[in-house]
Design brief:
- This protein is of the alpha+beta class and 224 residues long.
- The chain is built from nine helices and eight strands.
- It folds into two domains: 146 residues, Beta-Lactamase (2-Layer Sandwich); 64 residues, Arc Repressor Mutant, subunit A, CATH 1.10.10.
- It is 46% helix and 18% strand.
- Strands 1, 2, 5, 6, 7 and 8 form a six-stranded antiparallel β-sheet that branches.
- Helix 6 crosses helix 8.
- The longest helix has 29 residues.
- The N terminus is likely disordered.
Length: 224
Amino acid sequence: MDSEACNLTAEGERILASFTQRLIEIAPSGARGSDTSPAAALNAMRLPAIALDQDGFVAEVNAAAETIFDNDVKIKDRRLFVRDPAALALLKEAIDHVKTPPRLGPLPTDPIIVQRQDKLPVIVRIWRFDGAAHLPAREVCALLTLNALGPKPGPPAAILARTFCLTPSEAKLACVIARGASPYIAARELNISKETARNQLKAVFAKTGTHRQSELVALLLQVE
């Protein structure tokens, strides 16, 4: 992934973290006296989340989180299991901290980067939950949020073609680029040469009036 794509991913990750923090701050008030759990509330925003009880066991997994699970990241014996040894150690340390009173103040941990064998990493964050959310026989004391890096669904190629007068091939490339993929990844996915991908990307730049990949992605993601 080129530097522009990496910078875009980092900025998106920063915005997501800030947004998630605010959602979790307001989740307790929304959970009191209602049947909506914090994980379910985040699921409504399509944010993958796992609720942990006071013993660090998984109390709830929302549907958005379930779509991320694979052999590298999954629920095992009622705990979140990650195959990456370094990430697993950090995850255990962070969860042990949540379990240890007093449960006040920010967690002294950075986001946990879980490396995967055949995919881009998953970024796991742990948020202390000081609300009144309860599940059957278990109290939620923390939330794990997961951000799986990698291609996300982009605008349909047909709409991009009509909007920017792109050829079918250029539209397919633009659709992949809109998901944050580099031209190299797009070439591999579309089964075209890197040179062809570069030439098509130049044409897309010209037709959209953009000059950098981050600028192009920002424009394409406005198309629905």
